[in-house]
Amino acid sequence: MLTTLKTSYSDTRAADLAWCLGKEPLPALAVLDLRLGPADVQLRLLGASHQVLIKEGEDSCSETVACIPGSSTSLPLGAAERVGPWEYAFAARVETLSRGSFAGRAQELLALVTDHPNGLAGTFPGDPLAFTAMLAQRYEGRLRWRTWHAYPQEGRLVTTRTQVAPVGRRRSRCPVQASGRIPI
Q1: What is the pLDDT of residues 2-34, one digit of tens each?
Q2: What is the tally of helices (H) and strands (E) in the chain?
Q3: DSSP code of residue 24
Q4: Whole-angstrom Cα distance, residue 184 to residue 9?
Q5: What's phi and psi for 138, nearest 5 deg?
Q6: CA nearest neighbour of 97 among 151, 18, 160
């Protein structure tokens, strides 16, 4: 699903992103509710990036990657924590691309997410290459999601990858395939 977000572009630098677990739901500009196995997953686009909420039975988890006023937790390259009955693993990467490469990559990602039943993407007014996109799935008992945050004014693309698995289940890697398709 692709939407144009009804807000000004508020997080204008990749370096402004922060990461937080356990934050209460923030006001969302677009929401996609999914049922992935026994879990209810809500993908949320914020004016300041994204939030994912998970509820499975009595257990819940939230991930927020956004410009969070007063946050001292910058975006880590990786994190692993136990959250209730789950092992939570997070990874982030920041790419700096040329203008032409950035435009091509942005169009490819928006097409991938827009056409996926578990995808949500929002473009910001003023620049169709300024977007946040999310894609989720359940695979072998694990919840996985990928996000992309595009900053065309600085040619940066922030990619995150998260996996939530029941405690004791080994985490697996999620490589980019040689074909260029981006698995989640």
Answers
A1: 777 787 655 577 888 989 999 999 999 999 999
A2: 1, 12
A3: P
A4: 26
A5: -115, 130
A6: 151
Calculate the alpha carbon distances from 178 to 21, 105, 175, 182 in Å. 32, 15, 9, 9
The token pair at 16 is: 């402004």
Residues contacting residue 46 through CB under 8 Å, at least 6 positions apart: 26, 27, 28, 29, 64, 66, 132
What is the pTM assigned to this prediction? 0.86
Three-class secondary structure of residue 172 per DSSP: coil
Instruction: Calculate the dihedral angle through the C-alpha atoms of 89, 149, 134, 50, rounding to the nearest 10 degrees.
Output: 80
Q: How many residues are recorded in the chain?
A: 184
Taking the C-alpha atoms of residue 152 and residue 99, their distance in angstroms, rounded to an integer, is: 8
For residue 182, pLDDT over 90 is answered with no
Structure tokens that stand for 159 in this block: 């990619």
pLDDT single digits (tens) 155-176: 999 999 999 998 865 444 443 3
What is the phi/psi pair of residue 66, to 5°?
A: -165, 175
Nearest to 60 by CA among 68, 51, 69: 51
